[in-house]
Design brief:
This protein has about 240 residues and is an alpha/beta fold. It has helices at about 25-40, 80-90, 100-105, 110-120, 125-145, 225-230, and strands at about 15-20, 45-50, 65, 95, 150-165, 170-180, 195-200, 205-210. It has a single domain (about 15-235), classed as Rossmann fold (3-Layer(aba) Sandwich). Strands 1, 2, 3, 4, 5, 6, 7 and 8 form an eight-stranded mixed sheet that branches. Helix 4 (about 110-120) runs antiparallel to helix 5 (about 125-145).
Length: about 240
Amino acid sequence: MNFVAQDRSNLKHRILLLGPSKAGKSYGALVIATAMIQKYATDKRVAVFDTENNATGALTPEFSFDVWKDNYKRFPPSLVGKFLQDAAKTHGVAVIDGMASFWMGPGGTLEIVENAAKNKFGGNTVAGWAVGTPEQNNMVTAIQSCDLHVITTCLGKIKTKIVKNKKTGKSDVIQTPGIVPEQRQNFPSIFNTIITCEYDAERKLHTADFESHFSEVQGLHVENFGVEWITNNLLTTI
């Protein structure tokens, strides 16, 4: 028989935590990863790819996890696939902390495009995307096809738009609701849960927005973001 009934047993979480610097993205990712290990893989550990100068080291007193080759100084998108392949062999949950590095960091997609334009296409940046796009797409495919729950964090910037000032006649840049990731524009579309992180006035992590296709938490403002909340809400349907 070539067909079987489809169910949710093989679904994997693909989670993006998005926010500005120091918004608690790494902390939030490890909270979720800890809850996942407790529910799905109690005999395994969390694998972390830390692209931000071992920043997750400050969280080791509270969380237990293994860091993958944290001595990398350049971040070609192909490293994501290599990390996930290694993690799938030995670990239960994969965390990629700092997806912006694979876009605008040393060796990232933008640098690949720039170098290709310079060395192959006479400075034509548009043509350079013929080299950069496959690299980016392969990274996306690696995340989508990995046989682990994958949690990622990405630096974000506040959305802005240009409007004409009626009094001065000049153009002004104003802030608008939402955060844009420092990644390719369509990057968030590969995730089934997107969490926009920030700190409140008391420096406690909460989410400004929480959208998940897996549970009834769309649009919620989460104030008590911890392992218990994640287990009882986000992880209820898988």
